[in-house]
């Protein structure tokens, strides 16, 4: 979702003519329920499109928990950050985007989403 990715599906329509459609993965309803996408029974995914980023755009993906007995990860995260180059007073007052800011944000994350060590796959 953060990467603005989409999937292209295909199926055979009337007179065996291929019918394709492109679905944005961040669209409401793309994930119908647990382990279910909004695909028709006769559709297959033929392509996954992930657009290129711009020089000021950064996309990162993280998998927090290992899979154990189940095939669904407990917590995944994807982040997309677009940095704006501005020369106004608001930009001057903002902290610089550097390793110290990223380290401070990473340090604050466990407080936002505590996960007990006893949770299956909850090891850090």
Structure characterization notes:
The chain has two helices and seven strands. The chain is α+β, with helices and mostly antiparallel strands and 124 residues long. The protein is flat. The protein starts with 5 loop residues before the first strand and ends in a 12-residue tail after the last helix. The mean pLDDT is 81.
Short characterization:
This protein has 124 residues and is α+β, with helices and mostly antiparallel strands.
Number of beta-strand segments: 7
Measured between the Cα atoms of the first and last residue, the distance is 24 Å
Q: Structural class of the helices, strands and pairings?
A: alpha+beta
Uncertain runs are none
Task: State the helicity in percent bands.
Answer: 10-25%
Strand order of the largest sheet: 2-1-5
Residue-averaged pLDDT: 81
Share of β-strand residues: 25-35%
The major sheet is characterized as:
3 strands, antiparallel
Please tell me what the overall shape is: flat
Topology of helices and strands:
Layout lengths: L5 E7 L5 E7 L6 E3 L2 E2 L6 E6 L7 E7 L12 E7 L6 H5 L5 H14 L12
Antiparallel strand pairs: 1-2, 1-5, 3-4, 6-7
Summary tags:
single chain; 124 residues; alpha+beta; three-stranded antiparallel beta sheet; two-stranded antiparallel ribbon; 2 helices
């Amino acid at each position: 979702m953060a990467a603005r990715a989409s999937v292209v599906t295909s199926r055979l329509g009337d007179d065996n003519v291929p019918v394709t459609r492109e679905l944005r993965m961040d669209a409401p309803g793309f994930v119908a329920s647990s382990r279910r996408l909004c695909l028709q029974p006769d559709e297959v995914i033929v392509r996954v499109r992930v657009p290129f980023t711009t020089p000021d755009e950064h996309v990162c993906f993280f998998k927090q928990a290992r899979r154990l007995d189940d095939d669904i990860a407990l917590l995944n995260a994807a982040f997309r950050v677009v940095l704006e180059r501005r020369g106004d007073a608001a930009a001057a007052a903002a902290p610089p985007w550097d390793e110290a800011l990223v380290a401070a944000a990473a340090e604050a994350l466990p407080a936002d989403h505590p996960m007990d060590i006893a949770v299956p796959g909850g090891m850090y």
